[in-house]
């Protein structure tokens, strides 16, 4: 998922440089959503791993 976020980030930057502001904005928003989703899943799996193993933070 982070791979797709980076791809959309690159698309956003390239589109912004070329002057396609609408495409740049949309790709940037998609990249942000994918990054936040990946971060949320990471935190969720981290909490589950600690809960299952019984480890203390």
Helix percentage range: over 70%
State the domain count. Answer: 1
Supply Rg: 16 Å
The secondary structure category is: mainly alpha
Strand content: under 5%
The main β sheet shows up as: none
- Along the chain, the helix and strand elements come as HH
Distance between the termini: 26 Å
The total count of helices amounts to 2
Give the CA-based shape.
rod-shaped
Number of strands: 0
Poorly predicted regions are none
Mean pLDDT over all positions: 92
Chain oligomer state = single chain
Question: What is the compact description of this entry?
Answer:
It is built from 2 helices and no strands. With 57 residues, it is mainly alpha-helical. It has one domain (2-53).
């Amino acid at each position: 998922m982070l791979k797709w976020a980076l791809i959309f980030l690159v698309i956003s930057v390239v589109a912004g440089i070329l002057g396609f502001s609408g495409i740049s904005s949309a790709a940037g928003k998609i990249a942000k959503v994918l990054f936040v989703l990946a971060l949320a899943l990471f935190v969720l799996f981290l909490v589950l791993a600690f809960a299952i193993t019984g480890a203390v933070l």
